[in-house]
Amino acid sequence: MSRIRPLACLSLLALWSLALPGHAQDGQMPPPKVGVVAVQPQAVPRIVTLPGRAVAQADAAIRPRVGGLVTEILYEPGTALEAGAPMFRIDPTTYRANLTSAEAQVLSARAALTEAETSFSRTERLLGSGTTQAQVDASRAALEQAQAALQGAEAARTLAQAELDWTTVTSPIEGMASVAQVSVGDLVTANQADALATVTRLDPIEVDMYEPSARMLSLREDISAGRLQLTEKIEATLTLETGETYAATGELVAPGFTVSTSTGAVDTRFRFDNPRRLILPGMFLRGQINLGTTQGFLVTQNAATRDRTGQLSAWVVRDGKAVQVDLTDNGTYQHHWIVTAGLEPGDLLAVDNLSALTEGAAVTTVPVTVDENGVVQDQAAQPAPADAQPAPAAE
Which is nearest to 96 in space by CA: 168, 181, 12? Predict the structure, then answer.
């Protein structure tokens, strides 16, 4: 009797477990439930992400155009300067004297010209009655020499005035001024190699973005085949080193026409407004360039995998059975692969409980949604609309 009771208990437990919900009558497990979304082709923005580096739109090295002692530093380092703002003053004594001498030469040349004009007029009037043609020709030559001498004296005065003006060194552009590299009392020379300071224009700022030449060829092939419709105006956005998205949108300044022999990339330049001077020259950034639109299926990246060869694949449910399909992708958009081949309109893409899937196995589909971050959301758990009426209470 002691052996019969344990066997009877085991039999009852087995029958009870088979009778539990979720167990088929034939002893097999029910098909696994899989979250699916119905996919349809759509126009997807074609956005490429490229590494970039900020460069100043203008960066002027301030050098003297005349030599002499630095007598004053006329600006504060780190301040914004307007074009033409004075920065340094060089001792003007010599250049002021040169200007005075040049002005005297102009007065002398002008007096000589007046005398030559009078002489020529008198000689020409007396031609045939006391003067010969040779005398008239000589008088005309003297007049022309006096005119040339006056022009030379005026040119020398202009140069002397310019050199006097150059003793005040000004900024050729607007921008931020660096710390001065000279002190009061230093001797500088005209057009020296060492800069007195630099002025950098930070607004707007330009960003060089580097695109591999192989990708550029692929894009041109897509354009030729009609798979990519270019926008009328190519624009770009930036992601800063902190991961923050930069507020301004950049416009294309110049496309690249040469391939770097060291990196194999093409340099394309964009210009961005930088009123807060948040972006500085030399800063590394990530650029997102919106090229246009392409037709494709959006497949959340969580629902697709790549094998060792790089082949992208995903699970779809067809006729109630799981089927693994190979996909051809053409970039990404908002945590989704842009798939151009491998799916059919209306396919049920498996996005949840993928570990339970095997090729050809029957499954039970559960409609779900995928948010903009690629996260699966159960439709049953979605909040009801605000205008929905509550269900009547059961009596």
Answer: 168
